[in-house]
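ESCALATION

Customer reports they have been waiting on this structure for their group meeting. Please prioritize. Original submission:
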Amino acid sequence: MSARSLTTRLLAIGGATVLIGGLAACSSGGSADTGSGGKLQISYLVDNSTATAVTTKALVAAFEKSNPDITVKVDTKPQGTDGDNLVKTRLSTGEMDDVFNYNSGSLLQALNPDNTLVDLSDQSWAKDVDKQFTSVVSTDKGMYGAPIGTSFGGGVMYNKKVYADLGLKIPTTWDEFISNSEKIKAAGKAAPIIQTYGDTWTSQLFVLADFANIAAQQSDWASQYTAHEESYAKQPAFAGFQHLAAVQDKSLLNEDYASATQANGLKMLADGTGAQYPMLTNSISTLQQDSPDAVDDIGVFALPADDAADTRMTIWEPNGLYVPKTTTGDKLAAAKKFIAFANSSDGCKVQNDTGIAGGPYVISSCALPDSVAPIVDDLQKYIDDGKSSSALEFHSPIKGPNLEKICVQVGSGISTAAVGAKQYDQDVVQQAQQLGIKGW
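Update from on-call: job pushed to the front of the queue and completed.
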């Protein structure tokens, strides 16, 4: 993904994107043909994070106002593996909601979209979508997703006040990052590195956000990995597991890392009781909801590689909106209307009004607000300097379902880095075989 193309997109509305977590139980899938007053009713499945809930409520209200003959019933799912499994189960049993919000990239490919999802390539908005996003929601047979939110970075969010008080500089190597962390620990006022294994998906950042660094060292690593000729048990990819283990071995984590949630971690970062948090930049939207006065105090830097020349910011495409093939007739028409509205200027205004940008939109009908959080400027500099690269899941369809659990074990000292990397190499085999990839 070129710096030029990303510069037009990279400032994401975190409230409606991604991979960010929630805790509530899932509600059931199907909905009645009509809502109150005989209106046509469709259902919409989203993650249950606070930021997503705020944007979804406003988006649904605006859509229903513009389409008074349609009502939208919102269902929720957890984040991470549990949410992935729920989506797969509902698709396989024919009980998926009429529209659902889900990842783009490798996790989408695992849903067998040619057989389970409606092709949206004939929709009027499709021509306005950035080609990079189109590529990660498509197969040779169709384009299955519409963007919701924007792209975003994965790096280390940090509290600028803590850094200023201790006279710390942005690290560009792993050794500098550890040195900063040890100085923060010695000062005794903040946890040097925040980890939040209570939301298990957050454990993956040391591994996943390191991919741009891997690509800087070996440009063909993703294709070699897909061909089963590279692995996480070997360098340069093994470094991610080593770093995850190292910060625990050096006692640089918050005391409650095993039970803390992402919301807890962001609160620590906001109030300065935690200094650095490996996280996705779209989480700035959650921070805006819970600690709005702290937004200007939070910056981001790329997860440092061992060598400064290899340090890059890893970039994720936004989530997509999808329609299962079980949605038909009038409901299908209504579902397509809802997706088109979300990507219209009115729908994008809702996203701007209810979220906070964490990187650029990927559709030309949407524009960023006049002002964005400082974290976006930090992110943009990596792009402008040509020091960014898209995440592995946009270069390879292979991503094992148990990475977050493996990372929790390594990050908690239960498993070594070597054991975790080997387990993950084994974890991806079944998925690669299910996808029919040669060499597996």
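Sent to customer with the following note: Residues 417-434 form the longest helix (18 residues).
Escalation resolved.
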